[in-house]
Write a structure and sequence with these properties.
The protein is α+β, with helices and mostly antiparallel strands and 332 residues long. It is 51% helix and 14% strand. A 9-stranded antiparallel beta sheet has the order 8-7-6-5-4-1-3-2-9. Helix 5 runs antiparallel to helix 6. It is elongated, with a radius of gyration of 26 Å. 28% of the residues are buried.
Length: 332
């Protein structure tokens, strides 16, 4: 084995850990990886491992994999994980062999670094931007001839197929079941609100009830990000959002006629939130080639920014639109 490009050398893991991380990473980027890409795991006598990649893997995904293998285990020294590849993108690294690694001093946790065969040093951010840096690291090559294949070959298409056959469909079914329960509860509350409205129940209570369940429904769509990854759930959420908005407008209009105060109008939140979430999610997928995750301060920087933007939008924009709708109703 004398090929060095598209190889990742790593220490600190055992074979089971590498297999688990590799499968998890493949599934994480399954939408973008070509099905015929193969990952072969080799080992030498010093219990050091090498992942050799065959097939058309992009530089971005290669960088992501090096970063991914360097970060999950805090007990693993990131300096012992390096990769080699030839630049394929139209930038300063095109057709240049470079050693790829991560840095323990990288505060963002999303970047990778590289040194070329000409000893030029660069930082590559999560969006693929190549930035020259001043670093004294020199390029070095690792001899791969002593590594022996462990008969562990992972084809992207097969890994995805096994996932779908064993657990993927089950997880999708679980998400669908979870969504179905929430849809039924929300629909039931909307139906109950209409019935109570028709029999003359307390309007202020109904206004607060619709406000509460509409807010909780939208908050659930924000927190449970996997729900809006399925088209059926998007359509159902939007449909229930329309119904909830109509019920909220109806109750609000009647309470206004009765000159009641302290009224809320946020039944439109779901209708406002879903289109923005779809656009933001697609933008994230295009930039970072993976599904976004709702995180707190523990997530990586792009996920934190995505979560923060979505949260501020959810908290602020529906309220502003609600005030505008109130003014329109008062003018009628």
């Amino acid at each position: 084995m004398d090929k060095i490009n598209d190889n990742i050398f790593l220490e600190g893991y055992n074979i089971s850990q590498i297999e688990a991380l590799l499968k998890k990473w493949i599934l994480k980027y399954k939408e973008d990886l070509e099905g015929n890409i193969e990952f072969k795991i080799f080992e030498n006598k010093s219990n050091k491992f090498m992942i050799s990649i065959n097939g058309n893997i992009s530089n971005f995904h290669f960088y992501f994999l090096v970063n991914y293998l360097s970060n999950p285990n805090k007990n693993v020294n990131p300096n012992t994980i390096v990769g080699y590849c030839i630049g394929k993108n139209s930038n300063i690294l095109k057709n240049v062999t470079h050693l790829v690694y991560t840095s323990a001093n990288d505060s963002e946790g999303d970047n990778v670094y590289c040194v070329t065969s000409n000893n030029e040093n660069f930082k590559i951010d999560f969006g693929g931007k190549v930035i020259p840096i001043k670093d004294n690291l020199s390029y070095y090559a690792i001899d791969s001839s002593s590594y022996v294949l462990l008969r562990k070959i992972y084809n992207v298409e097969k890994v995805i197929s096994q996932y779908n056959n064993k657990g993927g469909l089950l997880k999708q079914a679980t998400i669908h079941k979870r969504a179905k329960i929430v849809f039924i509860v929300f629909s039931s509350v909307l139906l109950l609100s209409v019935i109570l409205l028709l029999i003359g129940f307390d309007l202020l209570f109904l206004n607060k009830l619709i406000t509460l369940v509409s807010g909780l429904f939208s908050l659930w769509l924000y927190i449970d990000e996997k729900i809006l990854q399925q088209q059926f759930n998007i359509r159902m959420s939007f449909l229930l959002g329309i119904i909830g908005f109509i019920v909220n407008i109806l109750i609000y209009s009647i309470t206004i006629q009765n000159k009641m105060s302290f009224l809320f109008l946020i039944g439109h939140t779901t209708l406002v939130f879903i289109p923005f979430q779809i656009v933001l999610r697609k933008t994230y997928l295009k930039l970072f080639r993976k599904e976004p995750i709702i995180v707190g301060i523990a997530g990586n920087f792009p996920e934190f920014v995505y979560s923060t933007i979505l949260m501020f939008y959810l908290l602020i924009v529906p309220l502003l639109i609600g005030e505008y709708i109130k003014k329109l109703i008062l003018c009628i």
